[in-house]
């Protein structure tokens, strides 16, 4: 057996990053404390100290104040809380919500639930690169608009939205602005001193922290109603005993990434471009999705028309390579991604899409190994079209 197959290559970082060693060590310390952060005794005070240190660490990743960070169980919870909590407590009265057509399901499904409760929801379309036009967002605003929620980056295709401009236009109209930054945090510099967002969602497992920990930034002075009640935790904003170990791991991972991110981005871009060029040269009919320049540095979305993406992911898995699937998988069948649909992709492209996302430990040798294996595996999964460059369909 090829020894290289014993070394797994993990290129599904957008769906979950390996836990950073620093985060793991910090979590071990938290597990050993045993105190409840709400308790006034010594153990409780020690636990609370760890929690508050973590809060400052998360704030450092987005250039916010510690007091503006509230811990949640996930990015999904943070998104749902932002939409419901900000609109119910907002100073601007109205029942209109604006989102983009490519938001994460936690935004879109919360918006649908709000529609059933009487809210009017506008989903602004995107172009073929997955970007919204700020003028189109502004045109969607009405005197009844209470909140606009546009993601910072798209997890499926890697496209970045012009969040700074969007936030400034929306705020100029006196409307609250939220951004889902789950896919962007730890991948790009985020500066909430420069971007006037009222709220921003984070998830620990996208930047080297543990799953089950997230956070919502709410700018000082902005009112938000709690999603959960029944306790005074998190300054009364989120009831329930805190997941101390998860919070501590999130804080330490955020601290590490805030420090190391500027030095990592050029390497990610270089590896991503090496992978992109290699795929284009070996699989000429492949299509790269998303914006060519305004995109996450370590993200690649590839459509192989005619391929079965789920089968391709499983075939690569058998070769020791983990990649992401670009469409939603149901128990009975593949369903075309709403993101790719919104970008104008047909079924042949949407159902043949995979994502390859890089992480802290991704190497050039791993990229070359993927470029060696992917064309061969793809050719075996194609339903009638794609052939690696230099090969032949002649069955002789």
Can you tell me the overall shape?
globular
- The fourth-level CATH homologous superfamily of the largest domain is Type I PLP-dependent aspartate aminotransferase-like (Major domain)
Order of SSEs: EHHEHEHEHEHEEEHEEHEEEHHEH
Tell me the number of strands. 14
Main sheet properties: 7 strands, mixed
CA-CA gap between termini:
29 Å
Instruction: Tell me the helix content.
Output: 25-40%
Structural class, by secondary structure, is: alpha/beta
In order across it, which strands form the biggest sheet? 2-8-7-6-5-3-4
Determine the CATH topology of the largest domain.
Aspartate Aminotransferase, domain 2
* Residue windows where pLDDT falls under 50 for at least 5 positions: 384-388, 390-396
What amount of the residues lies in strands? Answer: 5-15%
Count of DSSP-assigned helices: 11
The tally of structural domains comes to: 2
* CATH architecture classification of the largest domain: 3-Layer(aba) Sandwich
**Measured on Cα atoms, how large is the radius of gyration?**
22 Å
CATH top level class name of the largest domain: Alpha Beta
How does this model look, in words?
- With 396 residues, the chain is α/β, with parallel strands linked by helices.
- It folds into two domains: 135 residues, Alpha-Beta Complex (Aspartate Aminotransferase, domain 1); 237 residues, Type I PLP-dependent aspartate aminotransferase-like (Major domain) (Aspartate Aminotransferase, domain 2), CATH 3.40.640.
- 39% of the residues lie in helices and 15% in strands.
- The strands form three sheets. It has a seven-stranded mixed β-sheet, sandwiched between helices.
- A hairpin with a 4-residue loop joins β12 and β13.
- The C terminus is likely disordered.
